[in-house]
Amino acid sequence: MKASSSEKPGLRSRNLLGVLSFLKRYRAGTTLAVLMLLVNIGLEMTLPRVSGMAINQLRNAIATGIAENPWNLAGLFVGLALLRALLGFALGRLRNRLVQATLKDIRAAFFDAVQRLSFAFHDKTNTGELISRGTSDIARLQDFLFACLFLGIDITVAMLVTIILIAWISPICGLVTFMTLVPTVGLIVYYARQLHPQWRKTHDLHAEMTTAIQENIAGVRVVKAFAREPDEIAKFRARRDAFVSRMLSTVNYWAGRVPMAQFIFGLSMPLALWIGGLEVIHGRMPIGNLAAIVFYLMGIGNRMGAVGQFVNIIQNASASAERVMEVLEDPMKIQGGTRHLASKSGALVSFEKVSFGYAGGTGTELQDISFEALPGQTVAIVGATGAGKSTLVHLIPRFYDPTSGRVRIDGVDLHELDLGELRRSVGMIFQETVLFSATVSENIAYGRPDSTQAQVVAAARAAHAHDFIVQLDKGYDTVIGERGVSLSGGQKQRLAIARAFLLDPRILILDDATSSLDSKTERLIQEDMRRVCLGRTAFVIAHRLTTLQHAEKVVVLREGRIVEQGSPAELMAHGIFFKELFREQQADRDADKSSAGVNT
Amino acid sequence: MSAAADILLEEQLEKRPLTLGLLRRLMVCARPYRRVVIINMALTILAVTSQIFGPKLIQLGIDHYLTHIITFADAAHGILIISAIYLANLFLGWGLTVAMVKSAIRVGQGMMNDLRLTVFEHIQRLSLNYFDKTHQGRIINRADSDIDAMDQVLTWGANQLLGSALTLVGVLGMMLHTNWRLCLVVSTVLPPLAVATYLFQKYIMQAHRSVRRQSSRLTASLAENISGVRVVQAMGREDENLENYQMLGTILTARAYDVARIFHTYMPTLGLVSGIGIAIVLGYGGSLVTRHDMTVGDLALFILYVQMFFGPIQTMGDLYNGILSAGACAERIFQLLDTVPQVIDRPNASALAPIKGQVRFEKVSFRYETTPEDRWVLNEIDFVAEAGQTVALVGHTGSGKTSIISLLARFYEPQLGRILIDGNDVAKTTIQSLHRQLGIVTQENFLFTGTILDNLRFGRPEATDDEVRAAARAVGTDDLISQMKEAYATKVGERGGNLSAGERQLLCITRALVAQPRILILDEATSAVDQKSEALIQTALDILLKGRTTFVIAHRLSTIRKASLILVLHEGRIVERGTHESLLAARGVYAGLHEEFSRPY
């Protein structure tokens, strides 16, 4: 995924439109809001006229001596102002609801997209950047939505209407206003375009800064363990400085030029004074009308600032929109099929000439893998580090798809199976235990949230976790921290095991799951595993001989290929690679036995 | 996920209003920019003056040249002069604005970026207990988005505040000077305005805090879901998690609406009051004009000034909103900055001399912040490891092995007892000097984004490429690395995403070795690696551990057997100690553990 945004303007607007499409759901509300806005502007436009009329009235009164009641127009003015206030009251609320609802939809869509994207996507994606997209980029979209819906319409309509109204009073003043307005707006838009690549770069540098923060916090133990705090600070400082200097140059470019553009518009006032003044002097225009023009020009002047702000927001947003849409539209999802698994108990898992390579890896992580696991069989997968054991089992729940060959369960190609059902039928315990910030019960029941407490406890017992859980502060209701930190590695792993057990899966995958456990606990769990694996097809990645005890079949991997397979006894006797892998372990055990014997 | 899982320290913040103390702290941040701030203020004053002058010119034009016309020529000439002066004033105003903007940006951005670094530095100083109990997402929020949120206010706040205040004063002054009667009548709208603003302030601050807090929850939820996405997918939790997230989102929407409600009651009210003000001018002012107590030009002047009057009030209302929400962010940031690290260097802490490696635990007892009051994680741990010894810690999961190592590394401090290295109390030495001489391999195998070489050098950045390679060769990872796409220059993803767990572990072990530590700590480092690799590591470690004190947590018989001292832990106490042979002979707990390894395959 690209860290920086694209150049193509076509793509830019496509992304912005993509964001706007989230509004479609709220068509009715949006239309109403726009209408209300138009009425609001209309009301606003009448006010200077009323003031102008009042001044004309007074002028006539002075000239003719007949005074009209000034409070009539004052009353009208108040009435209009009151209407405007009420409208503003309602419009503000409606506007907020629309923007917030749309934003909520976008956030949810992002959340969902991220959690459904494949492992391959997450392998190459930086977590910090992803979080940044889901938070600060989406936050920028809030300004964008508001700007599009209301600011943009407000500015455009108000300016057009004002010019028309001025021209209605005095065509030449209208022309003057128009001729100062157009270059001003044009210049502001031009500057904004020039700035776009700068803003983009600023965003990217900001994201890099965020990544530094995120990684630093995620890896805090490593940083502290190696006393690397000063270096981390230096690294952060460098990133910050890069970001700051880019941002300052960008902002200074803007700050120098936009006021100049606004000055051009500002010329309209002295010109109107002069030209309009001459009209008044020669009696062609009552003074109240000139006053009205002056008031109108003051009004647009206030909006000038908003033009710059508007363009700014759009530019900022386009970068953010791209970053968000990119995730939403990423095709790296695993598409499930529609078929369901037939039988209820243990599944036949077959690999047929399966090859696979990671995108960023050597491309040959697995080559031509073919073997079968019979229903209810426990298969141990062994091999040196990097031989492909983990990769192999990751294909079973379709976390990755093979590049060639196929994997079948009960004869059905994985691609055709319903993905959710497939995943829930496979209980997988990863090497790295991830728990969530919630109670122990909630963590164990993660895969089956509607489990009963009895079921949770049963799973905990099977994982030999029950004993330590009840000793915790609040037992099963104890909340575990973000990384499950208040628990030891072994405890976390047992919870992960309990979690997998609770799924009652037909296929069980243990990716070196008992590595953190001491031998006694491991032994106990293995006893239970035997029980738990009954009726299930189990894959165990094993590094130790003891783990192989319950396996009915062993598959030996070497550099991505199967070099030997058979029952443990067969391989113990005849397996060359197998014996080499476990030779030293066996020698250790023999040595121990003899020393124990001596000391008896 | 249950919201109860959050430890909401900032709940208490909600009760405190925007305090002077907070402002004072922000001003301290501005101190380095004193000079620019003063220039900025001067510019602002000039700019406001220029602005107030404008309507006056219009009034003069109307009264002198447009209403009582003597000759056309004079009037035309006069109006031209007025227009020209207006133009000049405009030009001046423009120049001042540009200068003002540039100086404001210097101050605002300067302050923000100082703050970024300060926060990051402080985070480095905090102890592990803070990271244990605080969501990653929250900390990131503090260091990142909370500071961003203050951008507008820090940059423009002072300017707008000063400018608005001066404008108000200036305009009032001019109005008073022109016609004090009308001015007084118009001013009657001010007291209700003050009340409205006060109420507004009270409610909106709370609302903003709620929004940020809820937003933080969403970030934490998103972050957790991303970190744990593999488990989410493996357990098919997507639908449920989405539902939970949407519930959080709904609450956020409601909180945001609260803000809008308050804001969009206040603002329209301001607008209405502005309208009433102008109406008063039209009505009362009109009658004054009819009675020849005031000129038409003055009336126009009043209308313009009243509009100028309410503009700044609206700006201040806007700004107030901004200041209050920025205040909420600032409070959260300062709260972080005020967090005192749990483990800090004592005053007079001295650097630890190059370690020979004798480690002594003297009656150490310890519990975590989260451990219940009546329990100890470690209870009266007492032992001596001589320099160069390998000490193996064995025991059931949860017996305290990891805690001993955390204490040795001074990630935490024991409540009772002390830890001595070469006779020096660890608590009295500087943390940096200790960590520089320690090498640790944890269970997490965390790697940073960067090349393999960068990662391997992490513990000792001054290590040369040759030294890194030598360490890799000793561990046996040199071949492995050299075979990768770009060998040592291969980019490693976050969490070493494109490496297998075994490979990551080997890299982490290599990393620890490059650091040339005097004391090495291995926390179950060798357990997830296959036998062949493990054998390689064992051999290499044998060589490198000569002369280094090592603490190993492992369940591997082979590792434990070679230890000079084995400590058998059970529920936080040392129940047995000795060598492998002596413990076997004693036929105690250890022997029982060992039995299980010896069962026939």
Oligomeric state of the chains present here: heterodimer
Strand element count of chain B: 12
Percent strand of chain B equals: 5-15%
Sheet with most strands of chain A = 6 strands, mixed
Mean pLDDT of chain B: 83
Greatest interface by residues involved:
A-B, 192 and 189 residues
Structural class of chain A, by secondary structure, is: alpha/beta
* Estimated radius of gyration of chain B: 36 Å
Low-confidence stretches of chain B: 1-15, 596-601
Number of distinct beta strands of chain A: 10
Q: Major sheet of chain B: size, sense and barrel closure? A: 6 strands, mixed
Tell me the helix content of chain A: 55-70%
How far from one another are the termini of chain B?
44 Å
The number of helices of chain B is 22
Strand order of the largest sheet of chain A: 6-7-8-3-9-10
The share of residues in helices of chain B is: 55-70%
- Radius of gyration of chain A over alpha carbons? 36 Å
Distance between the termini of chain A: 64 Å
Number of helices of chain A: 19
Q: Overall 3D geometry of chain B?
A: elongated
